[in-house]
Amino acid sequence: MKGIGPILIVSLLGLAVGLAAWNGVLVATPAQAQQLFQRQPELTEILTEPLEPEGKPGEEFPVPFAPLPRTITPCRACHGPEKDFPISHNRREPLLIHTTIKLNHGGVRVWCLDCHHPEQRDYLIPLSDGKLIPFDRSYLLCGKCHGTKFRDWRYGIHGKRTGFWNGTKTYYLCVNCHNPHSPRFKPLEPMPPPHKPWTPKETAASEGGWKP
Amino acid sequence: MSDRRFMNEAVPDKGDRERKSDPSPGSPQQQGTDLSRRTFLAGAAAVMGMFAVNSCTWQEFIQNNFRRMTKKEIDETTERLKAEYREKYGKDFVVGTESPIDGTLFAYALDIQRCIGCRRCVHGCVEENNQSRDPEIQYIRVLRFKDGDMDLEHSDIYYNPDEVPQKGYYYMPVQCQHCANAPCTKVCPVQATWTEPDGIVVVDYNWCIGCRYCMAACPYMGRWFNFADPVIPKDEVNTETHYLGNRPRMRNVVEKCTFCIQRVRKGKYPKCVEVCPVGVRKFGNLLDPDSEVSRIIRTKRVFRLKEDLNTQPKFYYFFE
Amino acid sequence: MQRSGFIVGAVRRLVTGPPVYYVWVFFLLALAGAGITAYVKQLQLGLIVTGMTNYVSWGFYIGNFTFLVGVAAAAVLLIIPAYVYDFGPIKDIVIVGEALAVSALIMCMLFVTADLGRPDRVWHLFPGLGILNLPRSMLAWDIVVLNGYLFLNLFIPGYILWKAYHEQQVNMRFILPFILLSIPWAVSIHTVTAFIYNGLAARPFWNASILAPRFLASAFCSGPALSILLYQVVRRYSRFHVKDEALQKIAEMIAIAMAINLFLLGAEFFKELYSDTHHLSPLQYLYAGVHGKGRLVPWIWTAFTFNIIAFIIFLVPVTRKSFATLNLGCVLIIVGIWIEKGIGLIIPGFIPAPLGEVWEYAPTGTEIMVAAGIWGIGLLILTVILKILVPIETGEFTKSTATAS
């Protein structure tokens, strides 16, 4: 029981963020999101592809599911065989739809279809092997441009990992911390500063506390 | 409900793997002198009559240094402590005595480029390590510097804006650096503090005489003194403890960061690593070339605080 | 029989005296009582009752301790000319200096104990029983040398007085090695005490090689100054004869020691000011204040002024030879050195803190009361020792007079 609470919170918040920010079309309330997110905390998948030339073949590292579940991104609903909404190949030209998405990633160089697959809308564009990348493996695509970051992340140098320093680790994916449409880390409210220590009365009175 | 909280909550770890770590037996060589020690102290205690004013029990008074305790003494002591804590906090405690894992030398790395100064680590640490809330003890100080300046005298730890990071500043958390050449352990007149084989600098709170020489010796302000009886709310106390780590302390003794010895000796990451929302905190085994810290030292530019003092910290700040 | 004779005689001497003696003893007892009350409060509540914090973790107690180690060490200054150069006038009175050393040492130990968070665990320091961290810890070394010095200063006068009480000749061949040993030993107690601070690279204010010499120089001012006053009191209230010549010799030594002390201070000032690194900050805090904080500034300038005036008094023959100005000089030196070495040395070592913060310190009422109590106990011990020691030394109180009465 103890473990489920935080997972739910995480998944909920993940959903809320993911949905609101990425999709722009489909907005789910937390309650709906909870319904949709049925998968229970079988937390890690094992990725077995060798990730770089010096990596040992068949090397494994665990990753958690992305905060965005597969089942609720039905891009195909509009961009699919049933309803084939037109797609715009023009770069940096306002769209009629998806207007809530403010793309703030890579300056002028990046546009929607640099990541999203033009035909297979439930996927991201493939690497050179031609295999489609599902949304929950988005880090593979991130690594295409951010190669050194990807390498650091894979070794736990960039980004966050929890769990066991000598055993099973849980990786935070790129998109856990960076909204792909606006990757800069969002500011946080700091937790309270420490109390100032006891100080002689006269000092405290004359100074009004210590200032840098 | 913002992504702020989301970033905060870690995806929980599986935690189902138990390390089989045997309790560390104290060196048995002391058993001979033990009896005479007790006999003498019985007399001494009676004469001194210190119990009333210092509210310390007879067993606590004669308690030996942790490193000289036999296995039996350790068991007796932890049982006594558990009973004491149950009475005080109304909860069952675990007082672990896990010894170092073979082949480990712990080190820490912190990405100074990405720290946002949010103090999640400070407060996570306080809760994990049962630090006194009043008087306040916080093992981690987050120093804020202006861009382009690393003068400690210009740093500020009391910043409190609405949001961090602030433009024009960067942040540097400082805690015990677990020096390989630690000035604090050297100066202790009674060897109440020492470096464990896995590199963690610990304090035996029941052996410390409270002279505070170690605090004067530490260049990083890594040590804290319980000037009064520590106050921990009953519902916030962490019952998973280690004898040399986060077990509740008593007044007038020194305490410090132990890399969360109660966690890391079971294989877990320290609490500050787990709660850092930006993942700048890295922890691992220096003797393992594949550990995060070993890779960071190899592939990033690292520096250690006050390297000129030759304290040889096992706490590396890194950047790209 | 012999022993009971001594005890009865000693007690009789302790309870009789002029009215001023009673006033003095009751004053000291009151001080001690107040100190003990304050100390019990400290034991019950913890060191929170003091002004010390995690930033300034040593304060008034350790400051007084440092000053008193100097007073104790200064007994050596009296021994050197007395025995090595066979200077008669001082040799006669050296025993009173040793009594001062003993009571100063006891006060030192009381101050360290008052500063300890867990005095109930003091047995952790006993070798064999606990662990005395030798050879690594300078505090452990200090415990060794202070106790050794206390032993020497009890043993040497004890032996001499024992012989005097029994109206026998002192066997110089037996006692001289101990006397000679006590000379380097006295240097060692103050050197090791300086090394306690000196060895801490974390505190640049203390981490200067000049610290031990400065300690000795200042000790050789304050200790003898206290002795000069003490000798005048003793010769006034007893038949113990102290020649002016002896006091003059001591005053000359003080002048030299003060000159060295001021020179070393100047050297330190030059180094810090000219190089102008961050190691200057504590000195700046002490003499000028930093970030608008400078509680110690008036104190240290008072000390500086006192030391300069006293130096001039001791240097100029006219003022040195007049007892009015000599005594004024002694008081100025004692106060000056107490500020310089007690407060002015310990506290700025912690300001700014190693991570740059500036937090000031001031002793609380409790702390001052405990310190006053320790001074009371120390002076009481000194009074008791002198009350018995002086009559033995003058031949008024011997085995024969004790048994006769």
Q: What is the structure about, briefly put?
A:
The complex is a heterotrimer of chains A (212), B (320) and C (405). By secondary structure, chain A is α+β, with helices and mostly antiparallel strands.
From the structure above, extract its key features:
heterotrimer; A: 212 residues; alpha+beta; 25% helix; disordered C terminus; C: 405 residues; mainly alpha
Describe this structure in words.
The complex is a heterotrimer of chains A (212), B (320) and C (405). Chain A has 212 residues and is α+β, with helices and mostly antiparallel strands. Chain A is built from 6 helices and 6 strands; from the N terminus they run H-H-E-E-E-E-H-H-E-E-H-H. In chain A, helix 1 crosses helix 2 and helix 3 packs across helix 4. Chain A is elongated and about 75 Å long. Chain B is an alpha+beta fold and 320 residues long. Chain B has a domain at 103-320: 2-Layer Sandwich (Alpha-Beta Plaits), CATH 3.30.70. Chain B starts with a helix and ends with a strand. Chain C has one domain. Chain C has 15 helices and no strands. With 405 residues, chain C is mostly helical. At the B-C interface, helix 2, helix 3, helix 7 and helix 8 of B face helix 2 and helix 6 of C.
Main β sheet profile of chain C:
none
Shape of chain C: globular
Please report the distance between the alpha carbons of the first and last residues of chain C.
13 Å
Number of helices of chain B: 11
Number of strands of chain B: 12
Strand order of the largest sheet of chain B: 10-2-12-11
Helix and strand pattern of chain C: HHHHHHHHHHHHHHH
Give the structural class of chain C: mainly alpha
The CATH top-level class label of the domain at 103-320 in chain B:
Alpha Beta
Mean pLDDT across all amino acids of chain B: 86
